[in-house]
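U., I forgot to send this yesterday:
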Amino acid sequence: MAGRIPLFIAGVVLLPFLLLLLAFRAPLIALKAGVMNLLSVGAAYGVVALAAEGGAFGSLLGVDTDTPVPPFIPVMMFAGRADSSGHYRRRRHHGRRLPRVHH
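Result:
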């Protein structure tokens, strides 16, 4: 399972990159979307790890001892976050057209 996670992450980042690249023909928008997905998921993983350790932040959420995070949680977080950000980008850029150059 652990060996497949990089392939899963690559697929979840590369597929929207290619779709955005084809839809808008703007590599910078597609690249920014991929980087923002990775940054936001990394931040979410950090919050989950901090809460699972217990301590002051964990006790706010009712976690008093060091608690293991089930292996499916990071996969579900990544897929859910990438999906929701994709919906946001499609809504945000809906109807936006690039100017056509006529030769």
